[in-house]
Amino acid sequence: MNDNPAAAVEIIAQISAVPTILDVVCKTTGMRFAAVARVTADRWIACGVKDNLAFGLEPGGELKIETTICNEIRDHREPVIIDNVAEDAAYSGHHTPAIYGLQSYISVPITLGDGSFFGTLCAIDTVPRKLNTPEIAGMFKLFANLIAFHLDAHDRIDQERQGSELREQFIAVLGHDLRNPLASLDAGTRMLQRTVTDDKGKAVLTLMQSSISRMSGLIDNVLDFDRGRLGGGISIEQADRVPLRPVLEQVVAELALANPRRRIEADLSEAMVRCDEGRIGQLLSNLLANALTHGDPEAPIRVHSAASGGYFELTVINAGEPIPEAVVKDLFKPFVRASARANLQGLGLGLYIASEIAKAHKGKLLVTSTPEETRFTFQMPQQ
Does 228 map to a domain? Predict the structure, then answer.
C-alpha cells in the first residue's frame, strides 16, 4: 500500500461499499460518527466518514496521531471497545476520551493481505453505547476484513497496470532497440563470411552467426508470448494450399549452418497444406532448437514430414536423455524447459510457442520420450 496517507483518501473513495458499511455501523450501534482511518507512525487521516455528531471531520481531515487510540492499535493490532468511558478500568483516565469528549468508542484494525497495517474502522459518540457484544465485535471485524479485501484488490490492479506499462516498454525495446543492432550484426557477419578465408576466422564467424540466430529466436518467442497472452492466442495468416517443403528445408539449412558439428537428417514430403507457412517454419525452428539443446550431440536429429488420411504430420526426433515424467505434463506451458538441468540456455518459451502455433492451425503437438528417443509430432488437418 502507498505510504502516502493522502493517497488513501482517494483509494477509499473508490470503494463503493465503504459508505454503506459506515451507514450500517451507525444504524446498528447507534453511534453517530464512524470512519475509516489511515494510520501511520506519524499521521491519522480520515478516509471515509459518516458524521451525524457534528464532530467536524471530513475525508482528508486529520487528527494529531498522539491524541488517538488508533495510534496504540497500530502497535498492538487488537480491537478496542469501550461502552462507557467513565466505567472502563483501562480507559477512564485515558487522554483521548478527555480531549474529544467521548463516552463510547470502538475501533478495529484493518490488516492487509501481506500482514501490513492500513488503519482502523472506528466509531465514536459522546454518550455511552452498548458495543462490547460478540455480534457488534464480529460485525466490525467482518467489515474491516471486507475493506482490507478491497484495498488488496486495488493494490493488485495498480501493480498490474504498472506491470503492463513496464511490459509495453520492454516489448518496445525488444521490437526496436534490440532488433535493429541485431540486424546490423547479422548483415556484418554475413558480409565477412564472404571475405574471410582462414579457418579460425570462419569458425569465429560461424559461432557469431549462431549466437545472432539464437538471440533473434529468443526475441521472436518473447514477442509472440506477449502478443498471444494479450490477444488470446498466436495469430496466423492462412494462405491457400502451399508446398511446405521449401520453407522446412530453409529452416533445416539455417540451423545446420549455425550448428556445423551437428547432423540434421531431413525427409520432407511434397505435401500441399493450407496453413501459415511462416508460422510452420517457426514451429519447426523451435522444435529443432529444442532438439539441438537437449539431444545427444553425437546422434543425428531426424526431421520427417508426411501427409495421409487428410492430415499433415511433421516430426522431429532426437536421441539423448528422456524428458523426466514430472516435466512432460507441463512441457508446453511457458517457461518450462525439456530438461531439469539449470545450465541450459533459453527462456523456456520455444515449445510453448510451437504448441500455440499448432493450436492456431487447429492441430496439436504431441511428445513421447523414452531412453531410445524423444519424438515431437505436430499434426494438423491438411484441408
Answer: no
